[in-house]
Design a protein that fits this description.
CATH class of the largest domain: Mainly Alpha
Number of strands: 4
CATH architecture of the largest domain: Up-down Bundle
Radius of gyration: 18 Å
Strand content: 5-15%
Distance between the termini: 25 Å
Largest sheet: 4 strands, mixed
Helix content: 40-55%
Low-confidence stretches: 219-236
CATH topology of the largest domain: Glutathione S-transferase Yfyf (Class Pi), Chain A, domain 2
Number of domains: 2
Length: about 240
Amino acid sequence: MFTLFDYLPSQNGWKVRQLLAHLGRPYRTELVAIFDGEGQNADFLRINPTGTVPAIRLDDGRTLAESNAILAFLAEGTPYLPGDAFARAKVLQWLSFEQERVESTIGALRHWRLTGKLGRRPPELVAMKHEAALRALALLDAELETRAFIAGDAYTIADIAVFAYAAHAEEAGCAVHGLARFDRWLARVRAQPGHLATTYAYATDPHSSRELPRAPLRVASAAAPASAGRDVAGPG
């Protein structure tokens, strides 16, 4: 039985929990208090060098991080990840879209709003992310005109990934009124057997209003070139 390293308010963590619920696959959970600095402990950084969740550790000791990579690994050989090369690539296309256009905008805005951090962010940055989030939602609505699910006619991990934060767009301050096809897709995802409707409020974590702790900078060795990059963990 493998171990899932999780933080319950994280919708990235929800993605993995959701797929595991669909699969009926047993697992252990270890909760990581990331805003209390646990993600930067040396033991956890050996599991995920970015210090974020989710991550998994297999029975043989191998570890894997990043929510969408975990989804792809766990969905291998199941209906949630097509075997056909092109259909699989379409799923991967939308997993990339989710991280670049959905999680980074809606996910960030939602987190800032729900933890009281919005006022600490530059207004220009907030406005940029808000505009990008609305564009992503409009694009999803347009794409869903021709198919029932994100990557095709079947429900896959692409739907799980995009739903995780897109379904909470209003909590991010992004209105979804008028996006009828997007709304119908949300309903289809919620109607899937085993759908996990429960989310966990950031308010359950007394440390969530803090900024995510950063790992110490790695000092280049004398043998390393002066231009060597710095490896700094940020929020996942």
